[in-house]
Amino acid sequence: MDTAEEVRSSSSRPLPAPLLCFHSLVQWLKHSRKEYCELCKHRFAFTPIYSPDMPTRLPVQDIFAGLVTSIGTAIRYWFHYTLVAFAWLGVVPLTACRIYKCLFTGSVSSLLTLPLDMLSTENLLADCLQGCFVVTCTLCAFISLVWLREQIVHGGAPLWLEQNQQQPANAAGPANEAAGQGNGGAENQPMPAPAEPPAENAAAAEAPDLPADPAEEMELDNEDEEDGGAEDVADANNGAQDDMNWNALEWDRAAEELTWERMLGLDGSLVFLEHVFWVVSLNTLFILVFAFCPYHIGHFSVVGLGFEEYVRASHFEGLITTIVGYVLLAITLIVCHGLAALVRFQRSRRLLGVCYIVVKVSLLVVVEIGVFPLICGWWLDICSLEMFDASLKDRELSFESAPGTTMFLHWLVGMVYVFYFASFILLLREVLRPGVLWFLRNLNDPDFNPVQEMIHLPIYRHLRRFILSVVVFGSIVLLMLWLPIRIIKHIFPSFLPYNVMLYSDAPVSELSLELLLLQVVLPALLEQGHTRQWLKGLVRAWTVTAGYLLDLHSYLLGDQEDNENNANQQANNNNNQQARNNAIPVVGEGLHAAHQAILQQGGPVGFQPYHRPMKFPLRIVLLILFMCVTLLLASLVCLTLPVFTGRWLMSFWTGSAKIHELYTAACGLYVCWLSIRAITVLLAWMPQGRRVILLKEWKKRGMDKIMKTLIVAVLLAGVIPLLLGLLFELVIVAPLRVPLDQTPLFYPWQDWALGVLHAKIIAAITLMGPQWWLKTVIEQVYANGIRNIDLHFIIRKLAAPVIAVLLLSLCIPYVIAVGIVPLLGVTMEMQNLVQRRIYPFLLMVVVLMGILFFQIRQFKRLYEHIKNDKYLVGQRLVNYERKAGKLSTTTHSSSVQE
């Protein structure tokens, strides 16, 4: 029987007992890939059916033949995967690197010797690594081009690029065109299509104001020519015909056929060799177009202008020269675009315009992601020089010694600064009234698309934004870093500078401090939930205070009654929402609201009206001054309190020795975090009353939970990491670092810190691995949490077995080496050798036993595989046996042979 029909029971026609699960055939199960029965939810199970002439034990020649076949298959797969790895990890990056070096050598001889350079074995590893970077860059460039094309297609091209294409498409005929000319020139201006969805509009934040200002409507000059006539109509028709000829099913079928396994060659076929050829060709093309040509354009320009010495002194000659080449290429595309517009070459005009958009977006991305964070990082470093007792000369020397590392570190610091500044702005939007921060772009706005802004807005507007951002970010750094440092040095002369030396004379291991910082302190400080709520509460309290002091509560937070009335009115008048949004707010609602309405070509998004008090500009100025004073005081507290607390606490441990301020600041921040956390917990219990907190909760739940938590913390965070770190020290560290003629010294604190790291790694690997008893127990402990902590379960199921295994691993080798070996009468040198090498020896024995058991299991699987290949004739579906009470059930069985 080749097919099966699923028979379902119903109230009118119930299935008899033998038909409950008997119509699930093996063939149907293979195609459906189902593991459980849809009716009884029982897992399918099969028993093999072997040929009657199968012997009890397989002959040796059958086992040997199956073993040889398996070995041959393994060798074949090994050769194939070796070829795949050699092609993708060797040929592709090595070819990309050698072609890249050949093109940028600048000599004709390098082109002639390129085939020989491809076969050269010099610097293989370095060239492969550099080639991987080149391939990654070309792949990212290709993906970015495809994605930018999708942005242009779905979001629409700029008006200066599409104005001649829109007029023929909107013209229904000569009569309509004549009528349109008779209606006046004002109606013939290119307007955005009303049927276009808002999500696919041309610009996100400020782009809709382009038609309102004729000076900003065009990014390029001399582009107000008439419609293109027959060429534009033909282009539009050809584009429509191409869209009609495109078949989505064929492309979907091609995508289904080309999988990652097939493309990379992991499916066992050799089709990937063709893909390797195309990747090498694509890499060469991208290197030639996007690196070689811009670099040489910039190089010729720099040499011609006489700036070669200045560029070489920057230590980034290649990068700066390439950027200059892209800038000149953009200017050239602008000029060519204008010439094509004058001579009415519409296809060339559109192609040059699209190329200009690609170059423009690329340069803007470099400026936004690369240059701006780098400027912020250097400005932060310059403003904080006195905090570390450094000078500009020191920074210049570090840049001269390692320019790449210095620039990367400053870029990273600037990127972190920009990220946290943006996060703080998002938090402000959650607290303040919608419309207060109208001058800042809302990153959470679903209509905000920075790439669309890069496509549509002209260059001078991006330059204006860039200068404004640099001024704002630089002023905040001056206010919150440079000025507080000057005040601290004036009030507490001995507090600064911070100790950031790379060496330490403290009697404590730097490694243990780093591990403690990474494993305990930073996870608590980087936990965003509580910290974000605390910061949000502080911002709300400050806003309420400033609002009532300056009578700006309505402006900052809005009126609660008005907000509720507005919400009810919006719920009752959903049909009139568009009309209300399109209406420009009156002047009494704020000039910024009207400005926002002009920007959005409608009402401001989420704007709420507010009450405007007397002398409103003066109150805004006082609000800004109050905000600056608050930021200054907050910066003073953040720069002094954690470091002072950390220094005071670490002095009890290290005495008068100086420690890196990273550890003291982290210790102080952690203590402050714990203090604030305890205060918030008490405030959460405060509504229940002081008597309940001190008596009832403490007696019933507090003391019991605290004792349980302390016991679990001692076992899981104290004993187990200490034993694990000591075992790791005896097995790995001591045999490798300490010679046999020296005595190893053990530091419990350092072993505990290493044990914390190893315990977290083992726990993570266990949770990612297969299901077994330790994973089940850890998941159960995580699920219970501290509130529902089960001390008996943790000790019996987790702590006791793990501690027992660790103690046995530590004690048994020690008893053998110290108690049994001396009784055998061996020399002291042998006893010392046994004591020092017994732990790694037992580890090696355990590993060999594990490998042996694994090989035995693999041989059993091979044995079953050989037996099934030669003697298996079918499989029998094991039926579900229903047990009703204590009565014995009748077992029904059915078999299906393949």
Describe the fold and architecture.
The chain is an all-alpha fold and 898 residues long. Among the domains are: 100 residues, no CATH class; 123 residues, no CATH class. The termini are close together. The N terminus and C terminus are likely disordered.
Entry summary:
The chain has 32 helices and three strands. With 898 residues, the chain is mainly alpha-helical. It starts with 25 loop residues before the first helix and ends with a strand.
For the biggest β-sheet, the strand order reads 1-2-3
Secondary structural class? mainly alpha
Distance between the termini: 10 Å
Overall mean confidence score, pLDDT: 77
Quaternary state of this entry equals single chain
Number of strands: 3
Rg measurement, Å: 37 Å
Sheet with the most strands?
A: 3 strands, antiparallel
Low-confidence parts: 1-6, 15-23, 166-256, 561-565, 567-604, 884-898
Helical content class: 55-70%
Give the overall shape: globular
Residue fraction in strands:
under 5%
Record keyword descriptors for this entry.
mainly alpha; 3 strands; globular; 898 residues; disordered C terminus; disordered N terminus; three-stranded antiparallel sheet
Topology:
Elements: H1 26-32, E1 45-50, H2 60-105, H3 108-112, H4 114-118, H5 124-155, H6 159-170, H7 174-182, H8 214-217, H9 230-245, H10 248-257, H11 260-264, H12 272-305, H13 308-313, H14 317-342, H15 346-383, H16 392-401, H17 403-431, H18 450-456, H19 459-491, H20 510-525, H21 528-550, H22 553-557, H23 560-572, H24 577-582, H25 591-600, H26 616-654, H27 661-685, H28 690-737, H29 748-768, H30 773-784, H31 791-820, H32 828-871, E2 872-878, E3 894-897
Antiparallel strand pairs: 1-2, 2-3
Protein name: RING-type E3 ubiquitin transferase
Subcellular location: Membrane
Transmembrane segments: 86-112, 124-148, 276-298, 318-342, 354-380, 408-428, 466-488, 508-526, 620-642, 662-685, 706-732, 752-774, 798-826, 838-856
